[in-house]
Backbone:
């Protein structure tokens, strides 16, 4: 039991760090030579800070550590996508936001588990569906909103589709939320 | 043994976790950056956190379950095992409930003491936690901490419930056969042979008859000698034993308490009166008495005996005089490390009380072959020898009791010491 918990913790830490590093690396790959030092420094500092949350001395302040790491990685992404087109930049930032959110949730879930505790079958502190749904939904909404903004400024059918999808996603999430609230209210 | 405690009501309002602040800050920073740089695309980076924040704060948090805590036995002896049963029942489905039970130091368990569970309505969950009593003492188990997190862990309900359970772990007493009797006996009947002849069962001697002398006429000797002779016998009397336990030293205390429990049981089984004085940071005592009820009183008092740190200069004057009867034997069990205890022993002996000391000697912790450690050990040993000699000159025998050794050894040595001392006094 304890061995599998340790492995699950390692997998979760690796996943969240890999997600954060991937977006930082992508922004570095697409950055201009002028901004490269900023992106590298901010990205590295962000990943190191994010990883530091997994260290035991910082376990109590993990929310602050994770947030600081995310802000630094966010700076690297924003700086790295400055020369991209508006649509590409919006898409990249929306997807990066979703990845960072998933990384933060996985890290928080991993650190929230007490070390000497027994998890019984069926107990779900954390729902992957909800996290992925929130990440994908919010990414779609933000991208769709930006695209819809473009639609009003003579945007094309792609923008219209994105906006429609975003609106549908919001409606589905709101309905799911209201349903769950009605079902488990004390 | 259950004390009314704060029961889990399941009505605690959900409280925000630090994650709310973190997500709000991330969302705020993203929005602020978008406004400051005039770049709406930055909102996309912060949107998931804001989205999760809204959903997480709006989503309901399941109510806390009801917790019931029980232990299968309220009393144990050191080394014994008990099982704590934790029952959780919920009225609605709880996807995840974190339960933690603090097991006090002194009780050990090989299992985790925190659980994450899923609870369904009308199907309570039972958790059995076997515990082992590693040392004596009075332990309080519970209440259990329960926590039900909401969606994304942004809100959480937390409470304590199940009340408090008291578990008494009695010291494990060593069965003793060698016992040292007091110099003088009491007038009441007991199992000890009085040295002065009188009425009894054990034959003492044959003496010429004098008016009022106890005993029966020995007709054979009377016929042979031509004058009346009587058989004298040793009367069976009880004695007083006062156990003086040094509670100044935390490390030696468990051994001393076990020794005192063993001595109390053995002496009370022989119809002696036994009393207890726990002398240390906090003084407490049990006046001498006999019988099974007294054994229970003594064991309860010993179970509650703890080390309390104190700088106060305690003297023997603080000990109530009625707990130290003049005719009884005061058996001190002490590592003889604290000057307050040494001073108290000298004072008690100065009052003419029959006193003996069992010195608890800890295992040597210095590394073998370490020259500094050897030197320190030799100096300490010289100091202790000097102290024992000083006590010996005052008529206080000090018998060393090594860690891991039976208490029979120092008691046998004490019996020999007293016999020799009596012989020297007779000469």
Residues:
């Amino acid at each position: 039991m304890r061995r599998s918990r340790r492995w699950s913790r390692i997998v979760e830490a690796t996943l969240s760090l890999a997600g954060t590093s991937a977006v930082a690396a992508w922004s570095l790959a697409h950055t201009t030579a002028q901004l490269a030092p900023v992106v590298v420094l901010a990205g590295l500092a962000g990943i190191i800070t994010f990883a530091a949350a997994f260290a035991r001395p910082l376990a109590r302040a993990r929310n602050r550590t994770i947030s600081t790491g995310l802000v630094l990685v966010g700076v690297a992404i924003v700086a790295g996508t400055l020369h991209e087109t508006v649509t590409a930049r919006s898409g990249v930032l929306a997807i990066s936001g979703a990845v960072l959110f998933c990384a933060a949730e996985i890290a928080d879930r991993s650190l929230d588990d007490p070390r000497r505790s027994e998890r019984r079958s069926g107990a779900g502190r954390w729902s992957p569906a909800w996290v992925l749904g929130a990440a994908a939904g919010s990414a779609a909404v933000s991208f769709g909103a930006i695209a819809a903004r473009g639609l009003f400024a003579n945007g094309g059918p792609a923008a219209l589709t994105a906006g429609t999808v975003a609106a549908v996603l919001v409606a589905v999430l709101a309905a799911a939320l209201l349903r769950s609230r009605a079902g488990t209210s004390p | 043994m259950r004390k009314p405690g704060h029961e889990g009501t399941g009505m605690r309002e959900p409280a925000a976790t630090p994650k709310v602040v973190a997500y709000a800050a991330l969302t705020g920073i993203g929005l602020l950056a978008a406004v400051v740089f005039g770049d709406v695309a930055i909102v996309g980076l912060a949107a998931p956190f804001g989205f999760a924040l809204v959903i997480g704060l709006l989503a309901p948090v399941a109510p806390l379950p009801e917790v019931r805590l029980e232990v299968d036995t309220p009393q144990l002896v050191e080394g014994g095992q008990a099982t704590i049963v934790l029952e959780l029942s919920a009225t609605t489905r709880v996807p995840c409930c974190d339960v933690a039970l603090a097991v006090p130091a002194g009780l050990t368990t090989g299992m985790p003491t925190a659980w994450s569970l899923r609870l369904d309505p009308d199907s309570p969950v039972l958790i059995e936690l076997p515990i082992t009593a590693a040392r004596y003492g009075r332990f309080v188990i519970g209440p259990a901490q329960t926590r039900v997190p909401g969606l994304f862990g942004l809100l959480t309900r937390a409470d304590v419930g199940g009340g408090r359970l008291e578990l008494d772990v009695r010291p494990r007493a060593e069965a003793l056969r060698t016992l040292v009797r007091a110099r003088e006996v009491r007038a009441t009947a007991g199992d000890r042979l009085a040295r002065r002849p009188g009425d009894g069962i054990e034959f003492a001697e044959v003496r010429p008859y004098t008016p009022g002398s106890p005993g029966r006429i020995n007709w054979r000797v009377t016929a042979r000698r031509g004058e009346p002779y009587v058989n004298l016998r040793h009367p069976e009397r009880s004695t007083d034993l006062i156990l003086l336990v040094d509670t100044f030293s935390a490390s030696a205390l468990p051994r001393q308490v076990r020794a005192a429990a063993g001595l109390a049981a053995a002496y009370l089984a022989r119809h002696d009166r036994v009393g207890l004085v726990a002398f240390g940071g906090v003084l407490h005592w049990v006046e001498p008495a006999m019988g099974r009820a007294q054994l229970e009183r003594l064991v309860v008092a010993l179970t509650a005996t703890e080390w309390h740190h104190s700088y106060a200069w305690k003297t023997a004057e603080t000990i109530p005089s009625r707990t130290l009867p003049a005719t009884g034997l005061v058996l001190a069990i002490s590592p003889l490390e604290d000057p307050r205890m040494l001073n108290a022993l000298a004072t008690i002996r100065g009052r003419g009380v029959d006193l003996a000391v069992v010195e608890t000697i800890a295992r040597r912790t210095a590394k073998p072959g370490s020259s500094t450690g050897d030197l320190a050990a030799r100096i300490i040993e010289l100091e202790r020898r000097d102290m024992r000699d000083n006590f010996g000159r005052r008529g206080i025998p000090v018998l060393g009791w090594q860690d891991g050794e039976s208490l029979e050894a120092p008691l046998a040595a004490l019996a020999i010491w007293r016999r020799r001392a009596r012989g020297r006094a007779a000469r």
Remarks:
- The two ends of chain A are 33 Å apart (CA to CA).
